[in-house]
Amino acid sequence: MNYKFPKDFWWGSASSATQMEGAYNIDGKEQNIWDYWYEIEPEKFHNNIGPYNTSNFYYKYKDDIKLMKDFSHNSFRFSISWSRLINEDQSVNDDAVKFYNDVINTMIEHNVEPFINLFHFDMPMYLQNIGGWENREVVTCYQNFAKKCFELFGDRVKKWFTHNEPIVPVECGYLGHYHYPCVVDFKRAVQVGYHIMLSSSLAIMEYKKLNQGGEIGIIINLTPSYPRSNSDEDLKASNIADLILNRSFLDTSILGEFPGELIEFVKEQNLMPEFTVEDLDAIKNNTVDLLGVNYYQPRRVKTKESKIEEGEPLTPESFFDFYDMPGKKINPHRGWEIYEKGIYDLAINIRDNYKNIPFFISENGMGVEGEEKFKIDGKIEDDYRIEFISEHLKWAHKALEEGCNLKGYHLWTFMDNWSWLNAYKNRYGFIEVDLNNNFKRTPKKSAYWFKEVIENNGF
Ligand code: BGP
Fold this sequence. Notes:
Largest sheet: 8 strands, parallel, barrel
Radius of gyration: 21 Å
Strand order of the largest sheet: 1-2-3-4-5-7-12-16
Strand content: 15-25%
Helix content: 40-55%
Structural class: alpha/beta
Number of strands: 19
Bound molecules: 6-O-phosphono-beta-D-galactopyranose
Shape: globular
């Protein structure tokens, strides 16, 4: 064996409530922004497929968890749907408690450790209606939701995460048109980002008060920034991209403060959010125990060369351009570059600049369209996925050898799930989900390969 991983390495996969549960309006679940957006603009979603019946985990979780066990996974990360658990009047939905209790207990029974995330892009609509993350009151509602989750499930769940990819609601919801409410306004985006980070610290504070003996962290999509060249201009552009898109969340979560350079930038651009000194204390005093890193692609950056059109709103991209590097390896289905070494580079950065905090790869994966064409005797032979995973694991292994505190690897995702605007276009799972046949599950070749990797704790 060439690549042996440490004992107790976390092997598994990740998903999120909106993307896998389905049952969008069952048993008292309230609407979230996805349910609402689909209701008013279904044409925005690939093939008009909305979040209503995603993968049906709500009905099939017992079999799904059994499958995780059959494929030797020792952990699985999912999220609790805020709009399922907490009713509009802020009371708790008992049916949701029953569902999540059952999911957690079934996982434990099958030796699959539950890793629970509290927010995965799914703001309840009743809170979006009062401004979502722009409104300080929503931060308090989230703090109460988090506390409730710890009280209800924390006796058994020992790995908690406050947010998944906190940049995404900011970037996609307030700087682009990819998530509801599709606003483009840098100042409002900064307020949203600030409140999300504050909410993360307040959730951590609540968790620590309860002394439940587990760990709490955050999941960040750490996309390393690579400058086109070593020219001062390209380096400066790459630094600003890194500052806004990575370090705003990374420094704050691990070091307890927003980077000084970011504060200067935000002040210069007149983008300062509303904040209080007590907020900053909460951020300082409640840093994470553990970091999840989602890694899909690098960010290649060059100095701003494209013209800023008249009247074009200010966004982070007013300060740099993305660099389309010739000859890069690409996943044509998703359009994302594949750069396996990125996993090593980000691990070294965490080792050297972020206290070598324990972290794991909480998402990595390859979405492919039209996988049925790789079917042989009813099974998808996804050799490209096996290659994708193993090439990333090789770099992860090198990082481990060089002293990085890497604890595990989770693939996105266990079974094919619903991908936001792309719906079911690109499939990511170890397990095929047949939408035309009652969401039937069929393991792909990669599921069998990964099982062997887990059982050998290496490959
Ligand atoms: C991550 C998200 C996931 C998932 C994944 C794949 O950013 O945390 O929710 O969707 O990316 O991306 P996509 O679904 O856009 O192809």
